[in-house]
Design goal:
The protein is of the alpha/beta class and about 200 residues long. It has 2 domains: about 70 residues, lambda repressor-like DNA-binding domains (434 Repressor (Amino-terminal Domain), Orthogonal Bundle), CATH 1.10.260; about 120 residues, Rossmann fold (3-Layer(aba) Sandwich), CATH 3.40.50.2300. It has 11 helices and 7 strands. It has a 5-stranded parallel beta sheet with strand order 2-1-3-6-7, with helices on both faces. Strand 1, helix 6 and strand 2 form a beta-alpha-beta unit. The longest helix has 14 residues. The radius of gyration is 18 Å and the shape is elongated.
Amino acid sequence: MSTLLADTLRKLRAERGLSQRELAERLYVTRSTVARWEGGSRLPDAAMVSRLSQCLGVDANTLLGVIEASETSPNVIMVDDRKIVLTGGLPVLEEVMPNATVVGFTRPSEAIEYARANRVALAFLDIELGKVSGFDLCHTLLDINPRTNVVYLTAYVEYSFDAWGTGASGFMLKPITPEGVRKQLKNLRYPFLPEGARE
């Protein structure tokens, strides 16, 4: 069941004051097709996503990202070279995102290997990772999947100026907290959780 896409389409359609029939007429499909999308039993194909994005006034990449997230539980990673930080941070991420698959890594190379095998929706990266910086790791992860959201973790606020030029979605000071994570989820470049999960 594609409940995330279903919820997103229903919300966007309602915000624009359209009935299922009116949206169907604009898309040249039947009302039952729209009902199946909103019921979660069917997914629109790539050509229809383009039409939907035009009718609903949203970026096609946003809808594609929702479809990708609808197909599986999102993968969230945390990379920090200190095990104690992972030990404290991973339960917080699981608390805030109970439907996500949350995995921690102390070595950037292991995180890269995981990202190549699994679509990563969100990566929390320490900036100082030994020989490899979190900035470098961010670039590698975005090369693998440009739709990965990256949030930097650090104890040093002065890094925040360098962080913004790397394509990251956000910046958090340690220690990681549920409130801090929820705040970051509201500002992701490519949201992958329904609104209720980010509150």
